[in-house]
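As promised in the previous annual report, we have extended the structural survey to additional targets. Below is the entry for Galactose-1-phosphate uridylyltransferase.
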Amino acid sequence: MSDAQSELNRYKVYRQGEYASEHIRITPTTLADGRDFFYMDDDPEYVSGAKTRELHDPRPLTDRFEPQKDADGNLVPIQAPQMRRDPLTGDWIPMATARMNRPITAGPGAVASGNPLAARKPGDPYQDGEIPDTDYDVVVFENRFPSMMQVPGEPDRVTYVDDNPLWAKSTANGRCEVVCFDPNEQALPADLPISRIRTIVEAWAFRTAEISAIDGIQQIFPFENHGQEIGVSLAHPHGQIYCYPFIAPKMEQELKHTEAYFEKNGSNLLKDMLDAELEAKERIIFRNRTWVAYVPAAARWPLEVHVAPVRDGILTIDQLNDDERWGLAQMYSTLLRRGNAFFDKGDGKGMDLPYISAWHQAPIHDGRRDHYRLNLQFFSFRRAANKIKYLAGSESGMAAWISDTTPEKIAARFHELGPMDLEAERS
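The corresponding structure token record, generated without further manual editing, is:
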């Protein structure tokens, strides 16, 4: 048994497929304050073990669960993030005050000059980076400033604000992770080679599998925010994984409809939606053997694309086989590149599109999961090369969407940007 295979035996759920076992090496360590950290290398020298990664984090950080000093120098127990339930909607609202202190290096609110997601630079005056090594391929680690966090010994029970049963509260007993896509601080996800995106797909699968075994987690949500206009505080190419101790409101709405549809029709709503788009053809924008990308018939955003697997029965990313993971890497690369070309500024060069890329996976324990289906929902609030869509009174106040275009026009523009059928590609 190889060292890499022996190391993988430590994982509870995750199992590498044929490609990953030969071309991706996962090296775990812990950061100075005790957070989990994983190198995911696709460089052949690291995969083979000819080279190894730096595992020691030299920062003088205290254990994140140890008592911390307050403004008066007194030691106080670590405070777990809290969440409260809105009695009007039933939504849980996490309240993470520690995030007020997180570094911001992008946009007008920038307060830090260093980049905590960059590889360590010997001699650089900024030495509070999260990456122990001077280089990496892809890394995953627990967020230093999480919106949700599981604190050992913290009771996971519902109590009430002001002892009033109207206002339920509990610990935000979830988990937040960061996925760095590339060491190049100036890299754009759209410009990464497909082989690197394949490693990112493996990172989503790896973390989805492993986090599903953590007690208290109900939903795993990998996502990517990209672009200053979206509100990104760190410009480095990266995504996040939020692991909720509840079903998020949008997923709850989708589950209500997929379950009701199954009870009425005996079939899967998301599958029937995909089949209907394939039959209509007009809003299919590109596809390969294992995935289909389309503009949904009721798209909200001025640029919105959903991506779905062809094979039935896939509930979460870790259930994808090797061919489907490669197919997804190709689809995601194509989506990002064509998204950047979507708006023409007059020079034919397109633009760096601000977007949100959101993975909708079946919840872990909810009984309605079997009637759901994995899908990616990708959107941008840019509606022209020089305009963005603001979520004003109707959208923000009533969640009643007013679209600035039609799905058919969005699809027609994508049809101008490249062929519908993608050729198989593995590099």
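The chain has two domains: 3-58+78-244, 266-415. The radius of gyration is 22 Å. These points will be discussed at the next consortium meeting with the crystallography subgroup.
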